[in-house]
Amino acid sequence: MAITRDDVLHVAKLAELGLTEEEIQRLQQQLNAILDAVGKVSELALDDVPPTSHPLSVVNVFGADEPRPSLPLEDVFANAPAREDDLFRVPPSA
User: Fold this and answer.
1) For residue 87, what are the β-bridge partners?
2) Would residue 89 be called left, alpha or beta, if left means φ above 0 and alpha means ψ between -120 and 50 degrees?
3) What are the φ/ψ torsions at residue 45 (nearest 5 degrees)?
């Protein structure tokens, strides 16, 4: 199934895009090239290939969430412009 000029205009209208004639032609060619490339996948014999969401094995790289001591308050507030007790002092919003 090929993308027609009317298809491009329909999508442009839905997206509220104003396209020049040159852009319409270029997008039609590019979208048809994408469809052709995707269509080539259906020509492959993939019956023995399991469905995947990623071509490589994805593993969780996060470390264990274990409690540890936090910074001393003096270090936390060292670069703070203003401090009120154990809180950052910020100007009121307008």
Assistant:
1) 84
2) beta
3) -85, 100
Token pair, residue 23, equals: 């852009």
Tokens describing residue 89: 């002092």
Q: How confident is the model at residue 49 (pLDDT cuts 50, 70, 90)?
A: confident
Taking CA atoms, 26 is separated from 8, 31, 36, in Å, by 10, 9, 15
User: Rounded distance, CA 41 to CA 18, Å?
Assistant: 33
Measured between alpha carbons, how far is 54 from 58 in angstroms, rounded to an integer?
Answer: 7
The mean pLDDT of 18-45, rounded to a whole number, is 94
Residue 88 DSSP SS3: strand
The pLDDT-based confidence of 12 (bands split at 50, 70, 90) is very high
Domains of the chain: 5-41 (1.10.20)
Cβ–Cβ < 8 Å for 88, 82: yes
